[in-house]
Amino acid sequence: MDPTRRGFLKAAVTAAGAAATTPDLAHAQDQDHGHDHQAVPSDLTLRVKALESLLVEKGLVDRAALDAVVDTYETKIGPRNGARVVARAWVDPAYKKRLLADPTAAIAELGYAGGQGEDMVVLENAPKVHNLVVCTLCSCYPWPVLGLPPVWYKSAPYRSRAVIDPRGVLREFGLELDGDVEVRVWDSTAEIRYLVLPERPAGSENMSEEALAALVTRDSMVGVKKVTLAREGARA
């Protein structure tokens, strides 16, 4: 374990991000989409909170600093970085080529790098191929480009059913694929993080890079949805 302050903050945020699970995928999606729920925190969540309180009381960690780390990934980074990567690939063929050949370096060109994004793989969707990302063991996720993982991504039902019944999971997210479309499921690990490069929506040919980035959602970069001209806002 890294004994430095930065190492502790990283470990604490990772533990907090892995704490929440839900009994079913639909419920996990509802929680992530902003519905009001009352739930008793899990034992792990309570232990993390207790440890945080103890360390703050002993003066070993600054609560404001820890909150700042979480807030940065939840609101200031979030999926907007990934959306800019996708939009650049859509408008710049040379960049797209670099992104597919050496994802980590190409993403770093736009200034996005760091913990949980050291070894990236970019998966390109196509008319007959659709990629879906999951982490079957925990909640490995590319923080520099997508921020913190949503509740449903960490839930046990998603982690198991995405592998067993990926088309069923996609249907629950409102995505019905034709039978001749191949669904490829990719399991994130502690070493490798994935980013889906969605198909560019028809009718967006004359849109600017900035406008295209506004269309790209977090869910489309995980692979549970496609990008459409109608932005889904906070839900994705």
Strand content: 5-15%
Q: Return the average pLDDT rounded to an integer.
A: 83
Biggest beta-sheet profile = 2 strands, parallel
Q: Order of SSEs, N→C? A: HHHHHHHEEHHHHEEHH
CATH architecture heading of the largest domain? Alpha-Beta Complex
Task: Characterize the structure shown.
By secondary structure, the protein is mostly helical. The protein folds into two domains: 5-24 and 35-75, no CATH class; 78-235, Nitrile Hydratase, Chain A. Helices cover 49% and strands 9% of the residues. The chain contains 13 helices and four strands. The strands form two sheets. Strands 1-4 form a two-stranded parallel ribbon. Strands 2-3 form a two-stranded parallel ribbon. Helix 5 (80-91) crosses helix 6 (93-101). The longest helix has 15 residues, at 43-57. The radius of gyration is 18 Å and the shape is globular. Mean pLDDT is 83; it is low at 1-6, 12-23 and 34-38.
What descriptive keywords fit this protein?
236 residues; mainly alpha; Nitrile Hydratase, Chain A; 2 domains; two-stranded parallel sheet; 13 helices; 4 strands; 49% helix; disordered N terminus
What's the helix and strand layout?
Elements (H helix, E strand, L loop, with lengths): L4 H13 L7 H8 L10 H15 L5 H15 L2 H12 L1 H9 L1 H7 L10 E5 L4 E6 L8 H4 L4 H4 L1 H9 L1 H7 L9 E6 L5 E5 L11 H7 L2 H5 L14
Parallel strand pairs: 1-4, 2-3
Summarize the structure.
The chain is mainly alpha-helical and 236 residues long.
